[in-house]
Amino acid sequence: MTDTEREPCAGRAAGPAAPGRPRVDMSVEAAHEQYAPGRGGPPGGGHEVQVMVRLRAEGLDATAPRRPPERSEVIVIDCSGSMGHPSVRKIAAARRAAAAAIEMLPDGTHFALVEGTDTARVVHPRHDPASPATVAASPASRADGARAARALEAHGGTRISSWLSLTRRLLTARPGAAFRHALLLTDGMDQHGRAEELRRVLDDCAGEFVCDALGIGEGWDAEQLREIADRLHGRVEAVVDEPPHADLPGADLPGADLPGADGPGADGEGLGEQLTRLFRELVGASTRRTLAGLTLAVHTGPQASVALFRQVNPTVLDLTGTAVRDGGRTLLPTGAWSDETRWYELRLRVDPGHPSVRGAREARIASLRLEAEDAAGVVLPREERITVRWVGEAPPTDLGDAGRHFRRYTELEEATRAGCAALGRHDVPCAERELGRAVRLAYELNDAAHLDRLRALVTVENAAVGLVRVRGAVDPGHLRKLIARSSRTAPPPRAGGTEPSPPGPSRDGPGGEGGGHSEKPPVRCRRCAEWVRPDRFCESCGHPLGEER
User: Fold this and answer.
1) pTM recorded for the entire structure
2) Predicted confidence band at 255 (pLDDT cuts at 50, 70, 90)?
3) DSSP, res 379
4) Which of 71-75, 78-82, 394-398 has the lowest mean pLDDT?
5) CA 457 to CA 433: how far, in whole Å?
6) Please, where are the H alpha helices in 116-180?
7) How far apart are CA 478 and CA 89, in angstroms?
8) For residue 210, how many other CB atoms are within 10 A of its CB?
């Protein structure tokens, strides 16, 4: 075995794909040599094997489905009294953003607009409150929905658990909908002993729909929104009512010249512009998904089981709890897809002393296969087999390129959150130590957006060694923004191999199956490496697209 005793298994298509046909590729990276001392002992020992999996879907956006997929969308706007204080700017921005999101919904998408206070109420479409429902998007219903959004008023309290309960009721009322998405905006949090109620509601909602959560203003809890988005497999976004801070002290020091900048707030965007762009981005990302579901089926014998499964890029999501045992295999859902790339970490717990593998120097411990939901015409990769060679002496630790990359991102998130927690309790020495470690890791990872957010909290004296000083006045909004986005990652640097083709007609030739695309060719985002439309901002990660356009 070459490649420093690692087993890179490139994704292979199940036969040649016709030009223009959508496909999903899979590549797998796992350490081949595994240390297993005392294999002659009784079975029952445990050993974990880390497997990094990259899935890349392309051509989905360029292929019209045989029939439009059923979609449901619920937009939830916090209309508590605090949204109108100290000024009406927050509720005004929310009205504008909600109207813009409704106006971009595709025809046929069932949608509803929910007003969230200490209760939850559907303000569009208007129905008997005892039987709330959604309405199919059409020019007339979109116009009515946008008018309802522009009429929202700030009053009452905050009870996010009730908002999510009504959202679940609306979205599950149409069980045939393959794509169910919610967008939730708040400037507050559930309080007064409602944490347990929120957890119970999240238990009910998990697996039923995807929810993106946004915080605005100064009263929302970043950890609570992280919990909501993590449980419901969505994104967390923060809207900070300030221009970009690239001109703050420290921006001209090492690490300040890395490519990329933070998305929201760029180019002096105001509150309304930021929120409207984020609503359009999140709703657009949801409505572009055309593959209802991809499931990673892990076949193991009695000697192995799935110990952990998590998405590690573009955001970190623990998906272990979604695993379903099906005979001798474990099904791991990855959700709905458009043209995109995601990375996953799979850990297999293996018993080297099990009779089925004890006598073998090399053993096949698992095989991976992709299964797609309602995916006629999508070319899927062949099965990937995971084999290991047992050795009696511990080999040098080698996580592989992808494993090392995402291990450092785990350390970056830990340092970032520890530093923010220290700032919250006014422990400046601890905050400088942890945030300095975060600055060093972000610098080494070339993550300019994370560095930019860190500079709002600290003055960077030397990014390469993590030397920082906490700023005299830290804006709580920037603190919440950093916590909210600390689970974002960038993909590993590409090491050889062929680059993916840009999506759309530029790959398949003029007049291909991808009709209806922008006349301008797609561009590759320098931050997340995805092919995206040449807009002002990357629709995948929010990074400003400058030279790429």
Assistant:
1) 0.82
2) very low
3) B
4) 394-398
5) 13
6) 139-150, 160-172
7) 19
8) 22
Q: How far apart are CA 305 and CA 421, in angstroms?
A: 35
Contacts of 492 (CB under 8 A, 6+ apart): 343, 401, 402, 405, 406
Identify the pLDDT of residue 549. 57
What is the DSSP annotation of 301-365?
-TTEEEEEEEEEESB-EE-GGG-EEETTEEEEE---BSSEEEEEEEEEEE-TTSHHHHT-SEEEE
Name the residue with higher pLDDT: 257 or 346. Answer: 346
- Cis peptide bond upstream of 500, omega within 30: no
pLDDT digits (tens, 9 = 90+) for 502-540: 444 333 333 333 333 334 666 767 665 556 667 766 655
Residue 117 amino acid letter: T
Q: How far apart are the first and last CA of the chain?
A: 43
| Residues across the chain | 549
490 SS3 class: coil
Per-residue pLDDT tens digits for 423-442: 999 999 999 999 999 999 99
Q: What integer pLDDT is reported at residue 61 of this predicted model?
A: 76
In this structure, how many other beta carbons lie within 10 angstroms of the beta carbon of residue 330? 21
The one-letter code for the residue type at 337 is W
Q: For the chain, give the percent of residues with pLDDT over 90.
A: 61
Residue with token string 């901002």? 537
Tokens standing for residue 94: 């929310």
Buried b (16+ CB within 10 A) or exposed e, 87-97: eebbbbbbbbb
Strand segments (E) across 66-177: 71-78, 110-116, 120-124, 135-136
Which pair of tokens denotes residue 51? 């497997």
